[in-house]
Specification:
By secondary structure, this protein is mainly beta. The protein has a domain of 51 residues. 12% of the residues lie in helices and 50% in strands. The chain contains three helices and 32 strands. Strands 1-32-31-30 form a four-stranded antiparallel β-sheet, with no helix packed on it. Strands 2-3-4-5 form a four-stranded antiparallel β-sheet, with no helix packed on it.
């Protein structure tokens, strides 16, 4: 298998060289130096797409003393780390860029292109941060179940009190933009929300029991001037029988993706959303992953010979399949990086699959691996291990 892959790489490099040579012949006025740069770029790009790295070089190594329960996310190619005592924004080299102290029992995070929202599940405070520091503190009227932040800094919150659910949208100054109540008898029990990047569209996933049958109801709200002409700002409602869809997200093109236990539904970006695509796995959906441009899942499938294998699928933001790959990697966590890599980790092992289908990296660490983040360019990554943050380059 490895020999075949290496031969494919060699063939592609030869082809790349021939293309550059032909280019030089046709354009003799191009300098040799420029041609060499072009050739090197093509070779490096081709090589990196088909090579599996088994080691790494540490560029920066920062010791840290974080409490148990500290979580890490990528924001503008740097690191947000947070726990019940506060949040810190640090560079890949470990330099502190800002910190915000708070007291939360169950800290959670949501990140847009420009803002980070930190909130306490069952609390009422939301801290909105950017790359410089705190931009605003929002206080909701009821205990928060989940919250999302848009690119303009406004925040949508799903809340609950005394078995009644509530929605609120507030701007950076905490001013109320929109609000409403969601009663079980009318709309079911809300379990997740998604907020569009422009802060004008909100989707709610709810579960309902109708005549003994379980349903998921996806409701779409629009808070633009046109949406205000609709009753309760509702511009679309869809129901799915015998399916639970506990997680929904807006993609960068405005499409909404709803992840279910039996299917994944994709809705298009329009004033009145329409169901664009339904994805049905052969077996179950064991794990999901996504970023703003891609999403996917891992689940079992049965081959023609009756063997059960594990498959990894990746789809574009419109729902078209980009990768279908059998894997045998053990994992307890799976997530997608900002560069579209899929990471699978156990306590001390990590595997990175590129969207091209190549297993990009495989490694067993001495210490527990907490999180892998993309470093911002090429083969640069950030390895967060117990007690240390490493800015590394795969080799």
């Amino acid at each position: 298998m490895q020999e075949n892959m290496q031969k494919n790489v060699q063939d592609k490099l030869v082809l790349a060289y021939e293309k550059v040579k032909d280019f030089v012949i046709k354009h003799k006025k191009i300098s040799i130096g420029v041609c060499v740069v072009i050739l090197v770029a093509i070779i490096w790009r081709t090589f990196s797409l088909f090579y599996t790295y088994t080691d790494y070089t540490i560029k920066y190594d920062t010791t840290m003393e974080d409490s148990d329960g500290t979580a890490y996310e990528s924001f503008h190619n740097n690191i947000v780390k947070y726990n019940s005592d506060g949040a810190f924004y640090v560079s890949k080299q470990g330099d502190l860029m800002w910190n915000e102290a708070f007291d939360m029992l169950s800290p959670n995070i949501d990140i847009s292109n420009d803002y980070v929202a930190l909130y306490d599940r069952a609390g009422t405070d939301i801290y909105v941060m950017d790359t410089i520091g705190k931009k605003g503190t929002i206080r909701t009227s009821k205990p928060i179940l989940t919250a999302c932040v848009a690119d303009n800094g406004s925040v949508a919150a799903l809340m609950n009190q005394k078995d009644v659910s509530y929605l609120e949208i507030r701007d950076l100054e905490g001013e109320l933009i929109a609000s409403g109540e969601l009663h079980v008898e009318n709309s079911g029990i809300p379990i997740d929300i998604a907020f569009s990047e422009d802060g004008e569209k909100l989707a709610v996933s709810s579960i309902s029991f109708n005549a003994g049958s379980l349903q998921t109801i996806i409701s779409f709200y629009n808070f633009s001037k046109s949406g205000q002409q609709r009753q309760d700002n509702i511009v679309g409602t869809f129901s799915f029988t015998d399916v639970v869809m506990p997680q929904i997200i807006y993609m960068s093109n405005g499409n909404l993706v709803a992840f279910g236990d039996k299917e994944i539904a994709v809705f298009n970006d329009s004033f009145e959303p329409a169901l664009k695509k339904e994805i049905y796995p052969q077996g179950s959906i064991d794990s999901i992953f996504y970023n703003k441009d891609h999403f996917g899942y891992i689940g079992p499938e049965t081959t023609e010979s009756g063997e059960t294998i594990k498959k990894l699928y990746v789809f574009g933001k419109s729902g078209w399949k980009k990768l279908n790959k059998a894997i045998d990697d053990p994992y307890t966590k799976v997530y997608m990086l900002t560069n579209d890599d899929v990471v699978l980790t156990t306590d001390k092992t990590a595997v990175i699959h590129g969207i091209s289908g190549v297993k990009k990296f495989e490694y067993e660490f001495e210490n527990s691996i907490v999180k892998i983040l993309y470093g911002g360019s090429g083969n640069d990554y950030i390895f967060v291990q117990n007690g240390v943050i490493q800015d590394v380059r795969l080799r």
